[in-house]
Amino acid sequence: MRAAAITAPGRIEVLDQPRPVASGDLVVVEVLIAPMCTEFKNRKAGQVSDVVGHEATGIVVDAGSSRLVSEGDRVVVMPHHGCGKCVYCTSGDHMHCMDQRDVLAETGQEYGTATYAQYLLKPDWLLAKIPDDISLEHAAMATCGFGPTFASLQRMNVDALDTLIVSGLGPVGQGAVIQGAVRGARVFGIETHPYRTELAYKLGAERVFNPMTEDVVEEIRALTGGMGADATIETSGAPGAPRAAALATRRRGQVCFITWNDIELPNLVPLGLTIHGIWHWNHLTMAAKMWESIRKAGDRIDTLITHSMPLEDVSDAMDIQDTGACGKIYLLPHTGQTAE
Question: Which residues does the UniProt record annotate as the domain Enoyl reductase (ER) (predicted)?
Answer without folding.
Answer: 10-331
